[in-house]
Every structure is written in C-alpha cells, then in structure tokens.
Amino acid sequence: MVSFADRHIGTTADAQRQMLDALGVSSEPADGSPVEALMRQAVPASIFTDACESGVPAAATEAEALAELRALASRNTVNRAMIGLGYHGTVTPSVIQRNVLENPSWYTAYTPYQPEISQGRLEALLNFQTMVSDLTGLSTANASMLDESTAVAEGMLLARRASKAKTDVFVVDADALPQTKSVLATRAAAVGIELRELDLAAGAELPAELFGVFVQYPGASGRVWDPSAVIDAAHAVGALAVVAADLLGLTLLRSPGSLGADVAVGTTQRFGVPMGFGGPHAGYMAVRAGLERQLPGRLVGVSQDAVGHPAYRLALQTREQHIRRERATSNICTAQVLLAVMASMYAVYHGPDGLRAIASDVAGKAALLRDWLVEAGAGIVHDAFFDTLNVRVPGGAAALVARAHEAGILLRQVDADTVGVAVDETTTVTDLHRVAVLFGGRQERVFGRVGGDSTGALPEALLREDEYLTHPVFHVHRSETAMMRYLKQLADRDYALDRGMIPLGSCTMKLNAATEMAAITWPEFAQLHPFAPVDDVEGTLAMIDQLESWLVEVTGYDAVSLQPNAGSQGELAGLLAIRGYHRANGDEHRTVCLIPSSAHGTNAASAVLAGMRVVVVATDELGNVDLDDLRAKIAEHAENLAALMITYPSTHGVYEEQVVEITSAVHAAGGQVYVDGANLNALLGYARFGDLGGDVSHLNLHKTFAIPHGGGGPGIGPVAAKAHLAPHLPGHPQAQKDVHAGGHVFAGGPVSGAPYGSAGVLPISWAYVRMMGADGLRHATAAAVLSANYIAARLADHFPVLYTGEQGRVAHECILDLRPLKEATGITVDDVAKRLIDFGFHAPTMSFPVAGTLMVEPTESEDLGELERFIEAMILIKAEADAVAAGRWPADDNPLVNAPHTAASLISGEWAHAYTREEAAYPVRSLVATKYWPPVRRIDNAYGDRNLVCACPPVEAFS
C-alpha cells in the first residue's frame, strides 16, 4: 500500500537516485537509505541524529487518521454558545465555505509579494479594507490583524508613537473584553506602558496625562453608550482614542469615526467565520486620515500597471518589520488573509441590506429576551444594548450557568450575582425561550417570527444614519450563481500551489493535503466557543495534548504552548519567557539581545517589543555567524546579556558547523538561546533545537507542519521551551486546562485572545504528523534538502550559489546570486522574477536576505518534473539575458524588461517589439497547453505609494 508520506513527498525513490547521481552522491549507502549520504554531507556531524525510536507514533493511513480524528471530535459537545465576549455563532454561506475555505486556489496561495499574479486575493482584501473602513467610519483600514486582542495591543502601540503626550499612561475601559485586558497587560509590561483601568461609561475622569484611551463599543457587558465625550477629553490632552467595535453592531450603530475615534480595532469573526475554539479569525484595524503610515501589518493599495491599467499591490511596504528591523513599530509579519477573504465575501454576498437585516434580527431577539426576562422578574443591568445582556441573579449565577449547561446552553458567569447572555445570528426564538425558562420564565409560550427592522434596545441618539458599503461590489453578487462566478474569477487571476511550484525561500510552500484539511469544517471542531466548559471540549484538549507531546519530541524541548497565532507572536512569546526567567532570577538588567545581521526582520522587531535592546552580530563571507564578532559582543555585554537569537539552518540556507560552540558561548555568559524555528523543515528528524543548545523556539506550523498559508495567513507559531523557561510560557486566565505536555504549568501572560490560539486549524498539523509518522517526517526533510541541492547544482553554471556549507551543500533552500547577471547584461532580479511569470512560475524570494538574489526553496512536495521545469525556465532566462547583452534585443525592449506579458498585450494593436509574440508568451512549447495568463502587466509600485488609495476604486477606473 502507498503510504501518505509517499503521496506527500513529490520525488520517488527512482527520481531521488537520479538526482543523487547528478550530485555525485552514492545512492546506495550502507544503511540502504538513498538520501542518507547526502544528509550526512549537509548536516554537521556534531548535531546529526540517526533514526531511532521516537515518541511520535508510527504513521497512520489517511483513513485511520480521519477515524481517529472522528473519535476525538465525538468527545466534544457542541452546545448552543451564548457566551459572547467577541466570539459568536455565525452562518458561513456554503458558497463561501466550498469556494474559499475548502478551495486550494485560495488556501495554498502565498502573500501577494508578486502582485501581478495575486490580483484576485488582492481584490478580495481591498473589499475587506473597504468593508472595514466604511463600517468604522475611518479613512484607511489594513488587510487584517491576527485577532481582536492583539489588534487592541497594536492600537495601544500606535497611539503611543503617534501621540505628542509625554507620558506612559494608557487608559483601558473597565468594560473591555477580559482576554483583551490580559493581552494588554502582557504587552504593556514589556515596553514600560502603565495601564489605568477606569469605568468610563460610569463617568470616571481621565488622568491629567495620558497618551491614549481604549473603549470597548459595545462593552463586554453588552452596554451601549456614547463615548464621544471621553474621546474629546482625550484629544484635549494630546491623547489618541482607540475603539474596539463590533462590526455587525456598526450596521446599526454610529461609527467610531463619527464619534471622533482615531483608531478602530476588532474582529470580523462573526462575518461568516466559524468560532473554531478561538481562531483563526481576521482582526481588523482602521485609522483616521494622517495615520496611514502608522498602520501595522499589510495594506493593499491601488496602483497601475505598465500600460496604465488599474492594478493592486501591497502599499507602503517600507513600513514593514522586515525592512525596518529594530526600528520597526510592530513585529507582525503576516495577516489572516484566508479568513479576511471569507469575511469580505460574507459582506459581498449579503450587502449592506443583508448585514443590516442580520443585525436587526440579532438586536430584536436580544430585546425580546430582555422582555421575557423582565417578565420573569429578572433584573437587567443595562438598558441599552445590542446583542448581550447582563442579568442579575443575586448569589445564583454559578448555579444558573450550570443548569443552562445541563440544558445544552452556554451562558457566562460574570460574577457571583450576574449572568451574561449573548444573542447571535444563529440564535433561534426557541433558544430565547429556553433561556427565559432557566430564569423562571413561562414554560409555554406562543411566538412567531422576530426581527424585521428592529433596532432592539439601542439608544436612538446612537443609531446610524450614514450609508456604507455603497461600492457596486457589495450589491451585484446576490445569487449563488453570481457569487460562485465572482469567486472563480478572482481565483483564476491568482497563482497558487494548484497551478505549480511556489519556490519561495524562507517560506516553505509545501502542499496542504486534502485529508489534513478535512476536519477543520467538522462542527465538533469548528463550532466550539473558546471559553466553553472543559467537559464540552475533551476531544480538542486531547488532540492538543497529543500535538504538544509530538512537538516536544521532535524539537528536543520540554514544553510547548500553542497559543501564539503567528510566527511573530511565537517569537515574542519566547523572548518574553526569557525576560520572565531573568526577572524571576533577579536579573532585570539582562536586556541585551544579540541578533545576526542576516536574521529575519521579525527577530529584531520582536526583541524590541519584548523590552530588549538589539545588538547586531556580523556574519562572515560564508553566511555564518562571525564567531570573532560574536565573542566580542558577548564579552562586551556579558553582564547584561539576555539572549541570542539565531535561525538554524541559517537564514542563508546553510547548516552552520559551529552552532553548538555558539550556543555554549552564550550560556557561559548567562544568556539564553532563542533558535528561530522558521527553517525547521530542514532539520526535522535529523537534529533537534533542544540538542543544539536552544532554550526556546517558535515553530511555524504553517510551514513545517502543513497548515496553509492562505494567501498570507492563517499562521500559527507555537513556542517550545526547556523546562526552566516553561513556567514563563504564555498561559491564559480562561484556559480549560492548566497542565500541559510534560506536566508543565504556564504562568506567563497571554499573547493572543484565545487560550489555544488558532485552535480551529490544529487538526491539520495533528493529521500531518499522525500520517507522516517519525520516519515520514525524516524522509520529508531529506527530500526537501535533496531538491534544494539538486537545483543548486543544476543551476550553478548559470547562477552562482551564494552560500554553501563546508562540504559544498546547502540546506533546504539555496540563494542564487543575480548580481553578476545584472553587471553583465543589465537584467535585474525584478526582471527575472517577472519573466518567470511568463514561464508559469511564482518567483522565488527576492533580495532576501541579500539584495539582488533569489532564494529558492522547492520543498519536499514537488516532483522531479516540476523541478526540471523550473531549472529549464531559469536556464532559458539566463540565455535571454545573455541575448540582451549580445545585442540581439535592445536593453529597453526585450522579453525580460517587458515581463510579464498579458494576453491583451499580445493581441491588441500592432506588435512593435524587437521579439516575437511567441517568444513573449510561449518561451517553452509546453506552455501552449497549460499557459497561465497574468491579468496585469508589471505594476508601478512608486505610483501606488505616491497616490495612496486603499479602498475599492470606482467601476469607471476599469473602463
């Protein structure tokens, strides 16, 4: 029987022998593994681990893994969740579930760094930004945040840097979501911000000095009130106002912008994205005019292509952490694109009238529940509310919540005397009746349809009067036929793994197998509230325990927290654990973090956000950490050394021979070692971070463990640590369990809103490890390293490979140096990247970590035929560049500088170029049958930044 690993790994045994022969490596080593000899050449002997017994179970078949997941799912109970707190039941339209969430054209795409082949998802994200901007009443929204709580934290940091107030005081609404308060406390403590919690709705006065104020609208209690006076008072002392607003509520309520807010944040979860036990969901952030360049994360803008046609791209990229490093204002490296697309399409499908109708239905049902509860003699805490009621039950809250649970309804115990009840899109009138009975209401009642145009218990002075979602895109896709075709049209404009290889170095674009994806839409996983009682989530907690233990096993650490919902958040969590450890030991002065100059920008940004001071360590001509400079920096900062951050294999794609010497030197000086887990794909099964001397690492589940990139999110970045750091890993006050794999209790502050981060997609990584088994994981690593070395060897005569290890081997990726090509021919790395589109490829990573280079990572998923297709394309592009240098084509008119070529460019008007249409469109004959046509020509990036437009352009722009 063919194993799952055989399906996942693209190169067959015969292909691997052929590749090894090309590398001059014996394909018949003594142990019988055809790639083992290559791995022994690439991986330093000091860290190389032979295959041995593992705590990861032997591989299951796909059917067996699904059966085990079904058994775990059956241990969960999906009760009617009426807890609220930013997580609500919602109806995902089937046309969106099938054509986005379950569609590899959407979930296997990558961040749109090559915008010409990302126009579909960029348009979807522009819809998202327009939706958020319209509903919040603010001029510019970004392309999503990680979740609501982290968005509030980013809003706090934005307010601090944008305010002219000379103070560290930030005021927090007492009625904020409890998980948001916890995340704010974690983030504020690290950077010296003083939080002051005040009951703003009750009239508490602001302090004389503050740089910002945060308001929850509506509040966690459900209360709706007018915060404009508080916002005005904040502005009067030079502070900024951050408002977390419920987007569905904003279809009926006045917008934050109309109330004077500078920043609006929140979540789009209830726009058709399942609760998923806490995530992944797309948070949002919008800002008033003048703050655009302060926005963290990604921002989609409208520009134009080479012939002046409208085209989308990521705007203002100089704001991003990978460029600004320790000067970055945020460490966010990703977004929640797949979920943002779902939320935007929910708005496209329903339109403003449909969203208003859903909100009216929710508000009307909440008001009806209020009436029935009052009739039963219950006291309602707040008169004005949208969807959430706080109900007084003196001394009886715990008992009532327990009775509700027995009846299949989840309510929230606010305190001993108060119960919270939240109504959402999925709540039925029968549910309301059952709740009313729990509070002593009538057992029998006759009722009909509720909703209509009701505004429920919202105060008239706060009702919304302005229009929103007026762009045609929110009005023309009402039928399922129209919606299906729109989603297909957008997908066809994009390039994803369902079209071909995405050889992005540092990004590991391996296949996300269909069986791995299957369970995420099962109701037993998808419909769980993150704060559901422990009895309801036994299956998910068991799955989490198993996944934690497997990750501990393969990394050589002692504990894993799955809470960080992106790699950048995992970095931050690991550094905060180091900070907590030093402080617990009385070493508050240990704040220096050593970071190699080659490191990814998130490393430096995360260190700053963890309250550390970055000191850069040089790298040598081979791309390794410069040991002499490292020793000098350790000696200089020994007393204050907190940590070293390194990536292994290195950011340059090589296995550093001296890694153990490096980690030992840091430990000898009292520092801790953070090993960035971005490149674990090249190590799994052959070495473990913990054995290299690592104390803590984050792991990119969306890279090594097959969670989809989804066009730029979701990402998951669990943090793994040795036992001495485990107590400082992120915990959560609302977590269902205290003890984690290995018996560890996490007491660090939370870094995301949900106890287990993006738990809704953890079944993907669980299934990947379960079906690969320890042997499959090891074989995947070897296959990835073999493919990278094969490409490096085959292209070495055409493009120099910039860095290799001591035996001339690379790790899982190789850096091709295009600087000599530019010097000889004038052809740039941009020209090569855009010409690859004409060959039907997504370009490798451009100019990182070295300007003027391409970093190629083929992954283990690609077969030999696809590798050869890429090699052929690169060799032919080199020949085209040489033809330019030889004068066959002019330097300003050749297939490279004019790439990519659209179908329209080939058939419109006279063909006046120095090369033929065939040379432009079909540089290899195989493309005739399989051609991918980019929808736009090369995009003018500078134009888009000079003329910043971050919302849907008018239809006339495309005429």
UniProtKB/TrEMBL annotation:
First-tier enzyme category under EC: oxidoreductase
Q: Where is the Glycine cleavage system P-protein N-terminal domain?
A: 6-437, 466-731
Q: Where are the transmembrane segments?
A: none
Which UniProt keywords are given for this protein, alphabetically ordered?
Answer: Oxidoreductase, Pyridoxal phosphate
EC number of the protein: 1.4.4.2
Enumerate the spans annotated as Glycine dehydrogenase C-terminal domain.
Answer: 780-901
Q: Which residues carry this modification: N6-(pyridoxal phosphate)lysine?
A: 703
* InterPro entries, sorted: GcvP, GDC-P_C, GDC-P_N, GDC_P, PyrdxlP-dep_Trfase, PyrdxlP-dep_Trfase_major, PyrdxlP-dep_Trfase_small
The UniProt catalytic activity note for this protein reads: N(6)-[(R)-lipoyl]-L-lysyl-[glycine-cleavage complex H protein] + glycine + H(+) = N(6)-[(R)-S(8)-aminomethyldihydrolipoyl]-L-lysyl-[glycine-cleavage complex H protein] + CO2
Protein purpose: The glycine cleavage system catalyzes the degradation of glycine. The P protein binds the alpha-amino group of glycine through its pyridoxal phosphate cofactor; CO(2) is released and the remaining methylamine moiety is then transferred to the lipoamide cofactor of the H protein.
How is this protein organized at the quaternary level? The glycine cleavage system is composed of four proteins: P, T, L and H.
Family in the record? Belongs to the GcvP family.
Supply the name of the protein.
Glycine dehydrogenase (decarboxylating)
Source organism of the structure? Microbacterium soli
Query: Which gene specifies this protein's sequence?
Result: gcvP
